TrEMBL record:
One GO cellular component, as annotated: SCF ubiquitin ligase complex
Entry-linked Pfam families: F-box-like
InterPro entries: F-box-like_dom_sf, F-box_dom
Designated name of the protein: FBX15 protein
Source species, domain of life: Eukaryota
Every F-box domain range: 1-42
Amino acid sequence: SMPPEILLKIFSYLDALSLLSVGCVNKLFYDLANDNGIWLKIYSSCLQPKRTIWKMKSEQTEAVPLGCAALRDKKPGYWKKEYILKQTAAVKTRLMQLVKPLDPYTGLPFKNKEAMKVSGLSWIIALKDKNGKEHVIEKANLSFKDTSVIILWYCTNWPCLDVVSTLKLFGVTPLFPDQSKPPSKNGPHRCSLIAEYHLANLTEGSVAVGADKLVQLFSLNPGLLVGIWKEKNEIAFVMVSLHYHQLLERSILGSATVQYASPPHKPVLDDIDPEYGLHGYSLHLDMHGRSCTYLCGTFKNLFCRKGDIANGYLRLTVVSLKDNRKHLPLTGTLGLSWETDVFKGNVKDCYVMNLTLLDEIGKPFWCFSAPVYMELSSKTSGLYDYMGHIYTTDYADSEGKVCVKLVWLEETKEYIIVSLVLYISTKKVNNWYGTTY
């Protein structure tokens, strides 16, 4: 029953966050909270230092100061949108400045943690059942690695696995991040769709990567791991491994319904000769089990001759079976640790592989972070230098394949990588360089 004029006067004392919140109460409050006069005042006060400069410029910018000209012929909510655009643009500009310096070791921005803190970034998953009902899981545990972030969700009210159809992964950022305090759970924010997974027939349509006494693990690209309770056939936890490359872009720059797509790579002129093949590539490889690292190393000057191109792939040999000087030991017993609110465990013979392949000028060419598993290939090694069981780890996506061969040495209780080969899709290379292999 309060007159709109009185409400409008009350709203004029609110800040931007409060206005956005009060606009969610009902339609009347929404319309009043969109008032151009209130938002123009907020917009102008936020950019106060630049107002006198704008007045001295051309006709294109002189309409910003307070006055009738700035309010006429503007649709309701115009200055609210302008204010939000200015604020989000300022945050994005600061983020881009933070991620410019690169780590010479990995070729990736080395201020990723700081950039995430500045943006207030967090992640949520939304599971949709076959009836269309959505279940949002927010609270997550984070683990930061050299080139990736591991995010683990667990709760006590997962929807029944039999009715789950899809899982969506979102990056969530507050509309106006405040460095002095953590982001409010109920404050205005925006969601950016990172990936969508189809979980119908999960146990049949995904890769089983291991099990222990309590859970069975299933993997889907990109980087999703779902733990299922063995006895109840219900979800125990969900884990996602996200590579730093394009992580901020995909977590911030997309929309709630459409994933962000990176602009196409512009090839350097005369950068490569198809007759010569790839050359000067670098690989950073990280193998870990969430809580411990088994291998972290960089390999330089990788190349591929024309004779190494076959069946739609270019072969880059990182560790050769024949060259035992480059064979690599892994530290510790391989396994992937998991936890819920009650139980903890470790699934043996599986781990997370982080791969960062840089081209000859140091730009990220192929990057991923994904759970993988080891499979017993042969009970005895035929290698002269090693006696032990042979295991293999294989990974594949649309851009390439990774093939790893390991030998288990019983005497020293360690794995030795005796072969590591990358197979890069010719389609990926052709798109990157604008040439034909």
